[in-house]
Amino acid sequence: MYHKGKIYIVTGASSGMGKGCAQMLLDEEAIVCGFDINEKTIDHDNYNHFQINISDEDSVKSSMEEIAGKYERIDGLVNAAGIWGNSKPFYDIGTEDFQRILNVNTVGTFIVSKYAAKVMIPQKRGKIVNISCIRSRIFRGNMADYAASKGAIVSLTSAMALDLAPYNIQVNAVAPGFIYTGMTAKSFDDPAVRSQSESMIPCGRIGNPEDIASVVLFLLSDMSDYMTGTNVFADGGYHIQK
Given 32, 146, 172, 212, which is the most exposed site by the fewest CB atoms within 10 A? Predict the structure, then answer.
């Protein structure tokens, strides 16, 4: 097991892809510290829950200091916390609503990564995995706010990778495609929507959180030491369609 005994932080750990990553790491006998604005949903001896808003810098800073003080290191970070956009044309989105999406999806990732990096740099090792999205590259209407937040994650990943390369810290992103989570269940539980979506995926099915977690765990492992600044698509081949 590549992750046994290692210390990981996973944001968005109470649901969806974040929870999938946290649970798979726990299965690998890692110690996981979950950040989520919602209450704890994982019951495991090696799981520590921090109910915080990742866009609140003071809360993130104090939580990170607590983790570093207790474990004296952080081996990896998964930035999986995110919220959906307002589902409106960009010209109908209020500025405050637009900023709310970026504050969670982009600024939150920046804040958590900044304080994790401050622990990792003296160690001269570490892994950071950001969750981007196919919508960072493949667009449809009424998602300017969400697409902007996830496109920023891809650029942020590359910039972070360059800044942290001298310290042997690798930073990569995973771009999920159509994944069945609590946030997407309402759409994919509609047989017509599910069938239409699956018809566009070469692999022929909607993904699940474990499909993303498997890629994340690879990027957190020593097997990915020569990868940094990449955005790996995990979408069943959706992005190679016309």
Answer: 146
CATH superfamily of 7-237: NAD(P)-binding Rossmann-like Domain (3.40.50.720)
Per-residue model confidence as pLDDT tens digits over 110-129: 999 999 999 999 999 999 99
Which residue of the set 146, 167, 226, 238 is catalytic?
146
Single-letter amino acid, residue 96 = E
Question: What pLDDT, in 10s, does the model give residues 67-98?
Answer: 999 999 999 999 999 987 777 888 999 999 99
Residue 146 catalytic? Answer: yes
The domain segmentation of the chain, as residue ranges, is: 7-237
Could you tell me if 15 and 30 are in contact, meaning their C-beta atoms sit under 8 angstroms apart?
A: no
